[in-house]
Amino acid sequence: xxxxxxxxxxxxxxxxxxxxxxxxxxxxxxxxxxxxxxxxxxxxxxxxxxxxxxxxxxxxxxxxxxxxxxxxxxxxxxxxxxxxxxxxxxxxxxxxxxxxxxxxxxxxxxxxxxxxxx
Length: 118
Hints:
Elements: E1 5-7, E2 13-15, H1 16-20, E3 27-31, H2 34-49, H3 53-64, E4 74-79, E5 82-88, E6 94-99, E7 105-109, H4 111-114
């Protein structure tokens, strides 16, 4: 799949740009098993709690710009060359995000929450 498509629960690809207009341009949505999402959330939270994480995020943003969903994001961490962070879905589920140095962003979700992102 390309960087602007997402796997939806029925197994078809959906273009996130077309579904949300310009606000979703450059954002891919990847649907994963809920256990995989939980594992990602744990790793992002652990990385965000590590010593120096805040400084690394500030340095990353200075070099690459701010993430698209900064206003709702929390638990930010730089993992390799990628900025990772979380946001809260309306039901309280944590949703992981990845922001790449080239400006692309990816949102990871489970099948139950995928429709809310389209």
